[in-house]
Write a structure and sequence with these properties.
alpha+beta; seven-stranded mixed beta sheet; four-stranded antiparallel beta sheet; about 15% strand; elongated
């Protein structure tokens, strides 16, 4: 019997007992369906993190804070109250003395800039604009993304902010497009808007800025992005009237390094900064925990799906063992006609693989269909505010991996029945009643 004939015979034999085969296929279907859905969730969420949450921090930027000099109590808990400390503009603690906790001064920026590998360093300035307006069409409250200096956001139109240059640039979010009077996101790019901000004495100042692009809202950060020139101008106006004796400083600074720097180079920079009393974090440090948690959740869900597949594997064993028993005389006849043990083993193994293939394909197709419907419903309801998020993303690789895994489990499950069939004694098999 040729191999093609073995495959044809195995497929025909697998549907002899329709009820038993259908029940086994249903069990495999449940496991394959669940595994495909959980795999698609993992792919979708990971893709969203890479495209949007992953943009929460440029790859060549370190976020630097000053390590607090205040020692916590040995037994844990909060540090003792220090009456000398006051709250600076923007909520920064300090008292203008060297004991100011966690405040980065201009001297600190000089020290950071001298660390090997650091290209440039700048303090992060907090600004709180009051409104944004386009063409006298109404003023709207403006929310600024405090992490825009770190982001490479997912754009609906236009281009990214330029770090250099003296032009005031802003990235508005899609939520502002219709409110400001733009026909769509593309129409907003290149237009000039007015931003209002109050100074220390409550007087309103206005600044013109160019909308260079429109960004989608992200999971971890939302609000307009401002380039350094616009931030500097707003910060200067915001601090107009502040007494010269007031303390100045920043809680956070950003340092850029060569994007081609290796992991060892980045580790060396972080170690050098730590030795000087600063804490430096990369984007991987900041969002790595999120990806770890999501991967852990997906892993647990996949484990349940694999358990379902293992249970389905016992169904395959039961189905084929009963098939071997029912076809004992047939096996004896095949052996008497010269069919070797290896081909009989292959015949029953292919039956198991076919059942696994049938159940996995049906499960995968059902999962893809269900996922398409779920994505459509979620995108228009609970996830409407999260542009670019496709919860269930069915990539060819993971889908093929699910089918392959199920077929491997089916093959392993069919090993015992196939081995038993191949070891049948032809004389005793022909006498079997």
């Amino acid at each position: 019997m040729r191999f093609l004939d073995i495959i044809t015979t195995a497929v025909g034999n697998s549907i002899r007992s329709k009820t038993r085969t259908i029940l086994t296929v249903v069990a495999i279907f449940i496991g394959a369906f669940t595994l495909t859905i959980t795999s698609a969730i993992g792919t979708g969420i990971s893709g969203y993190i890479d495209n949007q949450v992953g943009a929460f921090g440029a790859a060549d930027v370190l976020s630097i804070t000053k390590t607090s000099a205040d020692a916590a109590p040995a037994g844990g808990g909060p540090a003792p109250y220090d009456p000398r400390k006051v709250t600076l503009e923007g909520g920064f603690p300090g008292d203008g003395s060297e004991s100011a906790a966690a405040v980065l001064t201009p001297d600190d920026l000089v020290i950071i800039g001298k660390v090997t590998g650091i290209l440039d360093v700048s303090a992060v300035q907090q600004v709180t604009p009051r409104y944004i307006e386009y063409g006298n069409r109404g003023k709207f409250e403006l929310t600024v993304n405090p992490n825009s200096f770190l982001t490479t956001p997912d754009l609906a139109s236009g281009s990214q902010l330029r770090a250099d240059g003296d032009q005031n640039q802003i990235l508005i979010t899609t939520a502002y497009v219709g409110s400001l009077g733009f026909a769509d996101a593309a129409a907003a790019a290149g237009q000039t808007v007015t931003i209002g901000i109050t100074d220390h004495q409550g007087l309103m100042h206005e600044v013109q800025a160019t909308v260079v692009g429109v960004q989608n809202e992200t999971l971890l950060a939302s609000g307009a992005g401002l380039n350094q020139a616009l931030t500097d101008n707003l910060h200067r106006l915001q601090n107009t009237g502040v007494p010269e004796s007031s303390s100045t400083g920043s809680l956070l600074a950003t340092a850029r390094f060569n994007p081609a720097a290796s992991g060892q180079d980045v580790d060396a920079m972080q170690a050098a900064l730590a030795g000087k009393g600063y804490t430096a974090l990369t984007v991987a440090d900041q969002i790595g925990i999120i990806q770890t948690v999501i991967s852990g959740i997906i892993g647990v869900l996949n484990a349940f799906a694999v358990i379902a597949l293992v249970a389905a594997g016992f169904g395959i064993i039961n189905t084929l063992l009963m098939s071997v028993q029912e076809r004992t005389r047939e096996i004896g006849l095949m052996k008497a006609m010269g069919m070797g043990a290896g081909r009989i083993y292959a015949l029953f193994s292919i039956e198991a693989v076919f059942i696994g293939f049938l159940g996995s394909v049906i499960g995968v197709l059902a999962a893809i269909g269900t996922g398409a419907i779920a994505n459509s419903l979620l995108a228009g309801t609970v996830l409407a505010d999260l542009q670019g998020l496709v919860v269930l993303r069915f990539a060819p690789g993971p889908v093929a991996a699910v089918i392959g895994l199920v077929m491997i489990i089916a093959f392993l499950a069919g090993t015992l029945p196939a081995r038993r069939a191949s070891r049948q004694n032809p004389i005793e098999a022909l006498r079997y009643e």
